[in-house]
Description:
By secondary structure, the protein is mainly alpha-helical. The protein has helices at residues 2-50, 53-108. The chain is elongated.
Amino acid sequence: MCNCHQGTMETYLEDIIVRSVDRTADEQARSEIQLKPRKSTKIAYELESKRTRLQSENMVAELVYSFLLPEVEKETLRENIKREQRRHILAAHSVIHGQTTEVEEEGSS
Length: 109
């Protein structure tokens, strides 16, 4: 009977220790997570304050180049594809219309 109580007591204490460790780890992780954005923001503001006008203009130019130019290229590609598809559709219509005209002429003869 004593062994049963001893095992139960050890399991109970083990559960308490595990929960305490988990809670402490969770609290520590949360506090570290909350500090990271603050540090990042502080670093970003420091970099921003040290940046010259030319560096800012270069950054904007790089953003425009990396976003807008690929977007313009995509739009141009889409337009080229539509133009090619339209050309093929017109050719298909022409072939179909030519064949139906021939069939109509043969049927009326």
